[in-house]
Amino acid sequence: MSAIVSALLLGGIAVGAASVGADGVPYTARESGLADHSLPALLYFGFLTLVDTYLGWSLVPFLLGYWAAPSGKWGAVIGLGYAVVALGAYTVGSHVEEVANADELASLPRPPGAPEFAEPDLAASALQMALTPLLPLAAAGAVAVVLIGGSALRFPLLLLLPAAVIVVDLLRRADTPWASIANGLPNAVLVAAGAALLVWTAVAVRRGPGGSGTPLPDGAE
Question: DSSP secondary structure string, 22-43?
Fold first, then answer.
């Protein structure tokens, strides 16, 4: 159980932090490439967008369900906990970034009579996040993906679902240069992950339920 909790916390914090970073990825990173950004920066931007989308909200919760909740007993708890941790990390990360931006603005000269900058409020940001549709939508999505992942041990063809999500993600990225560095890195990882999932599905279907080598828990047959 400690390994599951650690994976949930680390995964949720990682995707929340990546979401904060992805908010700041400039549009030029996908278009002009090395004309405006260094190679390490573009690779970093590509990594952020990949974690913020497919890895963070599709593959990781699916794998959490596959290995941690095959019986479905803990699927909803794991999915809900993952979403709360991820959005909590995003809220805290965004607050830290807002504080840094406010300090930078406060250090700049201002004309006489200019209003004072409002200090960022973490409690207000957390309340705003809790009241937006984002939290229930993220929670419902994470719970659904974890439950599907948990069912894939008994129904191996469900392994095709994360592969189908890859196709959707690639189509979503098609409006920007496919081979650009910041866009090409996630695309290459997605294609490789899709191929691995197809192989995994074929092997699991051939072996039948529980054929991945993970024993089915009591009551999961």
Answer: HHT--THHHHTGGGTS-HHHHH
Rounded Cα distance, 73 and 220, in Å: 9
Measure the CA–CA gap between 87 and 134, rounded to whole angstroms: 9
For residue 204, what are the contacts with CB-CB under 8 A and spacing of at least 6? 152, 156, 159, 211, 212
CA dihedral 160, 161, 166, 168 (to 10 degrees): 130
Reported pTM: 0.81
> What does the alpha-carbon distance between residue 212 and residue 206 come to, in Å, rounded to a whole number?
10
pLDDT in tens, 176-190: 665 567 777 888 899
Residues of the chain falling short of pLDDT 50:
213, 215-221
